[in-house]
Amino acid sequence: MKEITRRSFLKLGGVCALGLLAAPVLNAFGKGSLLKVTSDPAAKSAQRWAVVVDMQKCWAGGGETCRECIVACHREHNVPDIPDQKDAVKWIWKEPYENAFPGQGNAYTEEGIRGKPFLVLCNHCTNAPCVRVCPTKATFKREDGVVMMDYHRCIGCRYCMAACPYGARSFNFRDPRPYIQHENQAFPTREKGVVEKCNLCVERLAVGLPPACVQACPHGALAFGDLEDPDGEVRKILRTCYTIRRKPELGTEPNVYYVI
Amino acid sequence: MPEKALSGSRNYWAWVGFLLVLVGLGFACYLLQLSRGLTITGMSRDVSWGLYIGQLTFLVGVAASAVMVVLPYYLHNVKVFGRITVFGEFLAVTAVTMCLLFVIVDLGKPARLLNMILYPTPNSILFWDMVVLTGYLFLNLVIAWNVLEAERNAVAPPAWVKTLIYVSIPWAISIHTVTAFLYAGLPGRHYWLTALMAARFLASAFASGPAFLIILAFIIRRFSRFDAGDEAIGKLAQIVTYAMITNVFFLGLEFFTAFYSQAPTHGMETFVYLFRGLEGHGRLVPFMWTFAVLAVLALALLLNPATRARPTTLKIACGAVFAATWLEKGFSFVVAGFIPNPFEKVTEYMPTLPEGIITLGVWAAGLLILTFLCKIAIGVKEEAA
User: What does pTM read for this prediction?
Assistant: First the structure.
């Protein structure tokens, strides 16, 4: 075995010490300009976000053609307007009662509801099948209940689209950018090849604003709040009004309630 | 040993050249898809999986069928299968490679494929599908290659190969069970939400795979000096027969539950769409009735021992089995899961020309791999004889 001289050992020790000190020294110099990332003090927080839709108010105020919430959402989030329905991307839209609630409609449904348009969007299910099937966790559930998407991680396998029982998800079959009429510079656009859906306006929640659709509705048809807060707006409505959810028998525990 | 694939007759090179042309065309169309997006396919917001995933589903079955040759030979000493286990395993290698190629061409962001490995997600069945398919690919490749090498050197294969072979048997069952789980666990797709899905998949796998293997054996007999033997082919034909009976029986079970219950939540509306048409939409009806006719024809030829033994009728029967299972599993199965959509509306699907050319390209790539592997195997076996 080769003997190490005292001199070599001290040289080695010196180099090691230098190496170990490099990181702390550099950190000490760099710390001054380090940006701290904290949440906005006005940010909304909750245990479980939920939305309540009151279509009676929607029809009473805006008839069947009002699209304020849809326009607000799609404009806020750079949702493309693609004429070919095959490749359509939509985060919130309207479906007739019998289609939004299959199995509920019958030949004798009351006139007030039969065939009438209902707002549909992602339900941000508590027990979301889309989260369960995503192979990369590009679709994931936040602690406050929002089912979010990471567009950088999505590989475009579309398993989540097969899993969603509500048809809430859209795939970018083509590059969406040419189809965005009014680009919102404050929100990213997506690329072709990824899935997208309603994100419950997490970027607005983070600065203390309600979702775009809720804010945009001129008739107060959309309510929004924390399901776990007994004094919150959502629970107040649920206590006093009869509400239904889409396909409750599937066990997904959707968090969008419809006042009937 | 690989050098055996590089020497062949004019017919051999003409076949290879033809396949290369198809691969080239498929690749060109794939470049178009990469550039313009999956909009060039017939898939839509409602029918978000189509021909590519259908082919993947069908080919996992063909890959799993190697176990139908391996199990009898290694566990029950059915000696006649000894000559053809390598071909079954090479078919499995080919089929799994095609499966992985179909996954890649179906992805919206194929360059991000590694995300599945960088961020493993055990609650996702797709993650496990990737694991079992890749594992099965390497298992069969290593097994077949070593068994062939040993045969070439006129020695017994090393003991560790036996261990891998024993592992490959339940693994083969697992690849198709996991693939069935992709579909059978989705709460909103009533056509797929059946506990019978894995059993149905395995039955159609064990019909389609060995049927292809029989046709392959006849082709090899025609173009080389290697003969699998009438007894081996006969036993395979028996397996195809029982598997096809089971396959059709299981489909009948699905029909019963769907229609006798009259509950829409068991796929009844989808069956109506497939076999009669729903709300004026019926593009898949001709395909489904062709499947039915082919299945009946196949069973008629297979159940009769005389027609099952005669090569001409056996080849027709195997072709019918393969075509029937391709129509039912490789095409209609995946598409029908999305019809009617979650809003009880019907959006139909038909593959586009570029989509078809890409599919053909992947098939050609698979057949190319199979040709090379079989050429090597035949070369070794002719040498050893």
Answer: 0.92
